[in-house]
């Protein structure tokens, strides 16, 4: 897979991710509903595969799972570029909406579907999980 590159709205915070994603899909949890417009398009990468270029600020908050999630955003434009969760050590989740080529994102599932908003329709053929997918 070619290197995935992306940036915030102003370009001040960039990322590059090498290799195959661990997972990619949509999250409809309470916080991702706010981060995106009803859901967040997430690409999980091993931490060592992701290079972050530029200044960022972080905001930590307990997620729907009860574990901490740290969202990292550009201090200039506020664009949320990547996040890390206590539930997934060693994994960086990059925001697929920030990709230079957003068509590189190939969603394979929907998580926290129990929080889906009535107007937030996602491809009905994708597998859905009520909350987090089962481990493994
Ligand atoms: Zn920015
Ligand atoms: Zn979420």
Question: What is the mean predicted local confidence, pLDDT?
Answer: 95
Strand content: 35-45%
Shape verdict: globular
Uncertain ranges = none
User: What is the annotated CATH architecture?
Assistant: Beta Complex
Biggest sheet, strands in spatial order? 6-7-8-9-4-3-10
User: How many strands appear in the DSSP assignment?
Assistant: 10
Alpha plus pi helix count:
1
Instruction: Give the CATH class.
Output: Mainly Beta
How would you describe what is shown here?
It is built from 1 helix and 10 strands. The longest helix has 6 residues, at 30-35. The chain has one domain (4-115): Beta Complex (Metal Binding Protein, Guanine Nucleotide Exchange Factor, Chain A). The mean pLDDT is 95. The chain is globular. Strands 6-7-8-9-4-3-10 form a 7-stranded mixed beta sheet. A 3-stranded antiparallel beta sheet has the order 1-2-5, with no helix packed on it. With 136 residues, it is mainly β. Bound molecules: zinc ion (ZN) (2 copies). One zinc ion (ZN) binds next to loops.
